[in-house]
Amino acid sequence: MEMLDPDLLKTFLAFVDGGSLAKAASAVGRTPSAVTAQMQRLEEIVGEPLLIPQGRGRGLTPAGEDLVGHARRILAVHTEAWLALKGARAGGRIAIGMTQDFADHGLPDLLRAFAASHPRVRIELRVGRSLELGSAVQAGQLDLAITMRHAPSPDETAVISEQMLWLCSEKGLAARSEAVPLALLDPYCGFREAALNALDAAGRRYRIAAGSASLAGLRSAVNAGIALTPRTRRFAHSGIVEAPADVDLPPLPIADFAIRLSRQAPRPARDLVELLGDGLTLP
């Protein structure tokens, strides 16, 4: 019996989560042809087709759908074993920075797994905006940080790509007008720039109905129905949903986030970076 290679399963789940071989290739850092070869190899091991043509892309066969749950459990156990062996004797302190989006969605479960396997490591958390967190990593004040990526940086270890979306209150806007009401973070903000550029390119009128220095303030404005805001699906919870199609807003670009690691980061921080690179992708 041939064993299921975790690397093949990781690529398979990258396809499942991303919806295409191209996105899977970007997620695992391989070429599309290499990802295709990996999927063919996995099909050989399983003995059945896992992918099937579906429109312009590919979908899952029944065997592929069955494999998804097994693959997630296998990789979860693999990660648990790896962390346990890495963290058994580790101690010290690590300082982590992140934007509020990641603090709310995705990171808590990963930090829980890390803390269970590295019980002697003290974790210090800082939630802030990308520019200040990036500067803190460069200054050695943070061991690692998750920040919005504006340009490649030599200290980044992984890049997480997520689609920007127009988001609003699940109750809708309190009032409709010809000009699109926006809730935006104060400059500089990559989401702000992307939204304004998209609306300008589409010739849509807009007005800044609410501004905030924090995501907490932004969430309050959106939940109140004052305005829409551009974020990713990590922000879409607690009463916030994707804006309906009838608002007729232009498409937004992909948002790239970098996991950045200080040169002076201790070994436990490097262990955590590997865990985050594998675990932070949105399903």
Features:
283 residues; alpha/beta; five-stranded mixed β-sheet; three-stranded antiparallel β-sheet; 12 strands; globular
Itemize the secondary structure elements and their pairings.
Elements: H1 6-18, H2 21-28, H3 32-46, E1 51-54, E2 57-60, H4 62-87, E3 92-98, H5 100-104, H6 107-117, E4 121-127, H7 130-138, E5 144-148, E6 156-163, E7 165-169, E8 180-185, H8 190-202, E9 206-212, H9 215-223, E10 229-231, E11 240-242, E12 254-261, H10 267-279
Parallel strand pairs: 3-4, 3-5, 8-9
Antiparallel strand pairs: 1-2, 5-12, 6-12, 7-10, 7-11
Question: Can you characterise this structure?
Answer:
This protein has 283 residues and is α/β, with parallel strands linked by helices. 43% of the residues lie in helices and 24% in strands. The longest helix is centred in the first third of the chain and has 26 residues, at 62-87. The mean pLDDT is 88.
